[in-house]
Amino acid sequence: MHTHPPRGAAIGAILVAIAAILLAAKGLFAKALYAHGLTYHDVAAIRSVLAIPGFVLIAGLSTRRNRSRPAVSPTPGQLLAAALAGVWCYYLGALANFYALTVIQANVERALLFSYPAIVVLLSALGTRKLPSGSTLLALMTTSIGVFLVTGAADVSLTTAQWKGVLWVMFCSVTIATYFLASGILTRAMSSAAFTLTAMTAAGTAFFLHHSLLFGWFEFNLPEGTLWTMLGLIIFSTILPLFFVAEGIRRIGASRGALLSTVGPPATALMAYLIYDERLSLLQLLGTGMVVLGVALLEWRAASKNR
After folding, report:
1. What's the pTM?
2. Considering Cα of 144, then 145, then 151, then 154, what sign does the dihedral take?
3. What are the tens digits of pLDDT across the range 250-286?
4. Lowest mean pLDDT: which of 16-20, 88-92, 246-250, 255-259?
5. Tens-digit pLDDT profile for residues 165-179
6. Which residue has the higher pLDDT, 63 or 58?
7. Among 9-13, 103-107, 147-151, which range has the highest average pLDDT?
8. Distance from C-alpha of 23 to C-alpha of 122, rounded to nearest angstrom
9. Could you tell me what percent of the chain has a pLDDT over 90?
10. Cβ of 125: how many Cβ atoms within 10 Å?
11. What are phi and psi for residue 232, nearest 5 degrees?
12. What is the spatial distance between Cα 91 and Cα 179, in angstroms, rounded to a whole number?
């Protein structure tokens, strides 16, 4: 059985929570880039391709930091599995999500996207043939209701045209859930930096070929005023959080990591308030409190087990 020392688990929980907050800004970056004329193909492809050097740098720094430890060489099968996880989630899933952001309201997208913790817990239960603990189920229910409320989805009625976006976001949620599970397994055999580099290089390669075949790269120019927004999307909502997620899941496991990531929607709501002056309703404030309560319950149970 793979165990996590209390200090290592605490660090893992913090990393996942920080990653969720950073990833929460992705939709805000994307909407800003769409407003400048970029398509969802452009945003998804440029983000993925330009992020590869960042993952190479992080992997190199991680190798240097850990050079005193015994070297671990991933098997070809593990590298292939990591590459497939990257293509599945951060090529197919990301393309679906960026498309959905063009046809569905951001609050609905966030509510649906953060259904993936429930999917992780359910898939984990199916894989282990064990029901989740009562505290995990309670935390899952509390955070799920909180996410639904904080995103304002309770106040939104979908049009017929938006159902296509809903289905694509749900597909993306499934890809994120399976990526979490793959990360939880593979980062035990290979470093989190190596896993993330392999997965994201595969996704970036897929996007490079995708954009080359459909549109070409040579005649493409970033619209004026979008460079810093694109760099923000790449660094703060791609490179750093995906590395933090992989390292955090290595320390605390996929199910707990997925539940901790539900701090993302409240973070998005707060950023939307600070940037766009979007006010939080009473239901959204209640939802924020429920997410915090659910995550606190999960962490309290985990801490009590380590005493």
Report:
1. 0.78
2. positive
3. 888 877 777 777 777 777 777 777 776 766 678 777 8
4. 255-259
5. 888 988 998 999 899
6. 58
7. 9-13
8. 23
9. 29
10. 15
11. -65, -45
12. 12
Provide the residue count of the chain: 307
Q: Please, what is the angle between helix 76-87 and helix 192-214, to 10°?
A: 50
What kind and span of H or E run contains 298?
helix 282-305
| The dihedral sign for the CA sequence 94, 203, 66, 78 | positive
- Per the CB < 8 A criterion, the answer to whether 8 and 15 are in contact is no
Distance CA 130, CA 73 (A): 32
- CA dist., res. 237 & res. 278, Å (int): 21
Residue 107 has pLDDT above 90, yes or no: no
Domain boundaries, the chain: 6-305
Answer for the pair 168, 97: CB distance below 8 angstroms, yes or no: yes
pLDDT at 2: 46
* Contacts of residue 197, Cβ cutoff 8 Å, sequence gap at least 6: 55, 56, 58, 59
Q: Which two tokens stand for residue 52?
A: 């590869």
Task: State the DSSP code for 219.
Answer: T
DSSP string, 188-241: TTS-HHHHHHHHHHHHHHHHHHHHHHHT-STT--PPTT-HHHHHHHHIIIIIHH
Q: Which two tokens stand for residue 291?
A: 């997410």
